[in-house]
Amino acid sequence: MNVRTVLGAGIAVTLAAFGFLAWGAWLTAKSFESVSNVELELQRNVGTIVHLDEVLTMSARMGAATGDRRWEARYRKYEPELDKAIKGAMALAPDAAAATAETDAANVALIELENQSFERSRAGDAEGARKVLFSDEYERQKAIYAKGASQTNAAIERKIDSELIKHRQNALLLSIGAAFALVMLSLGWIMVLRFLRRTEDSRRQAEQEALSARATATAKEKEMEIAAKIQTQILPREPNVTGASVAAAMVPASEVGGDYYEVIPVEDGSWIAIGDVSGHGISAGVVMLMVQSAFASIVRQDPHIAPSRAVDILNRTLFENLRRRLRSDDHVTLTVLRYYPDGRLVWAGAHEDMLVFRAQSGSCERLRTPGTWIGAVENVGRATVDSSAELRPGDVLVLHTDGITEAPRGGERFGMDRLQAVVEGAARGSAESVRAAVVSELSGWMDRQEDDFTVVVVKHGVEAAPSVAA
Amino acid sequence: MNIDLQIPASSELRAVARVDGSALLVTLEGQADLRTKATLDGLLGKVHLLAVERKAPEVKLDLRAVEFMNSSCIKSLVTWIGDAQDAAPTGAYAITLMGSSAVHWQTRSLEALSGLADIVRIDVQ
């Protein structure tokens, strides 16, 4: 529900409520005005009836007493008006019709007697004319007339009172409706205001979160930049290994994964290492630096140290730093190899299986890297053993990280079999051509890079210009 | 009898836990990668608490149906093994990791995991 909809609905309901109340008030006022008009008209009629009755009675009696014909003329002038007033009252107050009808009948009888009086007066019978107008019958009809007028008046008052009560009730209902509408509208607008406040709060919070996310992303980018620098700039430069040509590549993912490799030439061959720090980002870069520094120190100090002993020392150093000092739960998969120019190869430490392309057979062997990982437990001596193999001229040793075998395409992984096929296809060429083939095949195959990938290629018995790419 | 581990359901990684003799057997199935790391961390934490509470002498973790496990999730296993080691002697329990030689990540990782501590042994078929 957006703000515009809520505000629109609130305004529409408010306008509808005010419109309904205004319409109700207008109807009540109009109806009240109508009742007032009827009341005034009725009161005027009743007054006219009483007044004209007196005028006619007086005119008739004066005519009889004086014989002056002007009184009859006056009588004739007002007699239709009285009739009209009585008919008007009957029309305006149908509820008082019975009383008005009695008044009308008495009026007719009185007019009859008064006409008799006028006729006698015109005939010169002044005494007869007077007697008619003062007769018992005349007085009786006058009393009926007066009573009827009074009853009409009372009926009209009752009708008006009833109408007024009805209109008071309507006005009261309208007031209650208005009060109810006011309460509901107030509640409705309180809800609308709360909604607007919540919407505003949410908008501000979203803004804050967006700002915070941008700041985090920027910090993360910076961290990745530093980690990538650590990871790539610490790589060996142009390793010149007696007895072999070496080519290597490491391709970092957007979030650095902690791949590590090292080639340290010594007087009779070379030390080679490959590994992967379990964490990501700058912390993985720092761990990698520790491994690189410690490994270089150990093998430069004693180039003839057994690989298993080197791994054990590395583990103790790393365990002390990671678990005891940094309280980190990272560990490192690491294999270190001692390569001799005569083709002997000795290694220790657990990492990925290694591939050795045999020039004689044209196919690869897989060499296991038994043992355990370093940095996680204090002592790995129990599980760490030296393994060995022999390379013959033209054989190619290929080391890799899991960024190659676990590279994804949809739900599929690149895997060892594909890597082996690529190596077998390119191993007759130079170490550089094997490296290039692996990078090219993998880059073309995977649909996204989730992790760093590293490949180190050592071609035995063929010394060539070293090649390193990152 | 199955045990409800009360972990958030994940379509990528599923777990069933039950009592197997005196041991606690937890069977995992699916893919363990960055998307399911939180689920795996929660699961292993619950398994550890359960094993200590019940004084189970052994926890068997059957990984044969886990087709893929990346390094982040393997790190979760390393942490769990560390927790189990730290629980000794009062809450000590042995860990058996059951794997398959046909699954690449298991052939290279289970042996390395077993080398981390004496309490870990592997059963690869």
Q: Would you kindly provide a brief summary of this structure?
A:
Chain A is an alpha+beta fold.
Estimate percent helicity of chain B: 25-40%
Mean pLDDT of chain A: 89
- Compute the number of helices of chain A: 10
Largest sheet of chain B: 6 strands, mixed
Q: Report mean pLDDT of chain B, rounded to a whole number.
A: 89
Question: What is the H/E order of chain A?
Answer: HHHHHEEEHHEEEEEEHEEHHEE
Main structural class of chain A: alpha+beta
Oligomer: heterodimer
Largest interface: A-B, 32 and 24 residues
Distance linking N and C termini of chain A: 52 Å
The largest beta-sheet of chain A arranges its strands as 7-6-9-12-1-13
Strand order of the largest sheet of chain B: 1-2-3-4-5-6
Q: Which stretches of chain A of 5+ consecutive residues score pLDDT under 50?
A: none
What is the total number of structural domains of chain B?
1
The tally of beta strands of chain B, per DSSP, is: 6
What topology emerges from the helices and strands here?
The complex is a heterodimer of chains A (470) and B (125).
Chain A: H1 3-66, H2 69-92, H3 97-122, H4 126-133, H5 136-233, E1 244-251, E2 259-266, E3 269-277, H6 281-301, H7 307-325, E4 332-339, E5 344-348, E6 354-358, E7 363-367, E8 387-390, E9 396-400, H8 402-405, E10 408-409, E11 412-413, H9 415-426, H10 431-445, E12 453-460, E13 467-469
Parallel strand pairs in A: 1-13
Antiparallel strand pairs in A: 1-12, 2-3, 3-4, 4-5, 5-8, 6-7, 6-9, 9-12, 10-11
Helix pairs in contact in A: 1-2, 1-3, 1-4, 1-5, 2-3, 3-4, 3-5, 5-6, 6-7, 9-10
Chain B: E1 2-3, E2 13-20, E3 23-32, H1 37-53, E4 58-69, H2 71-86, E5 94-99, H3 104-114, E6 120-124
Parallel strand pairs in B: 3-4, 4-5, 5-6
Antiparallel strand pairs in B: 1-2, 2-3
Helix pairs in contact in B: 1-2
